[in-house]
Amino acid sequence: MFVSVPEKPDQRPLAPAKQRILETADVLFTREGIRAVGVDWLIEESHVTKATFYKHFRAKDRLVLDYLADRHRRIGLDVALRLSSITDAAEALVAMRDWTADDVGNPALRGCAFLSAAVEYPESDHPVRVSVGIHRRWLHDVFESLLAQLGHPAPRDGAEDLMLARDGALLGGYAGDPADARAALHRTFQCVMTSAAVPA
Fold it and tell me: Are residues 39 and 119 in the same domain?
């Protein structure tokens, strides 16, 4: 297996109301931005009472952390599923490239939830930034592991290149032309994989 799947801290099923709040937060935070969405708005859109909201989330920041953790877990599951039948590291990297390309220009994503969260929480030691860092280190480790298996001479540096390519493609595809962003993504993967003598 090429990736470790992030696990829920608590494996028990979520209460329906809590699940509904998380799903509502996912939609509103993506569409409007985290800071722009207040607790009252979340309560109204989730069709729960204020008491129910605070029963499950002591504060909005707790909800933001759970929202990011859920995103992280779902992304991990998606990546693991895409790579589950692949046994070759080069093929796995191409699958990772295509996974990113599929998200470029997706209006439901508006770039990257983790980069957006980092912008909205500029304090580097804030728990939200810590959560963003956990996700990005996990993704970096996936790239680095695959490049090491290919025999890349500097897999850590190559992983940084692929992280930057992914970031740029997601944001560039949202702010500009998705086709151009995908083309740049493909070129970067080609360049990095060629460094390991494997065509992308």
Answer: no
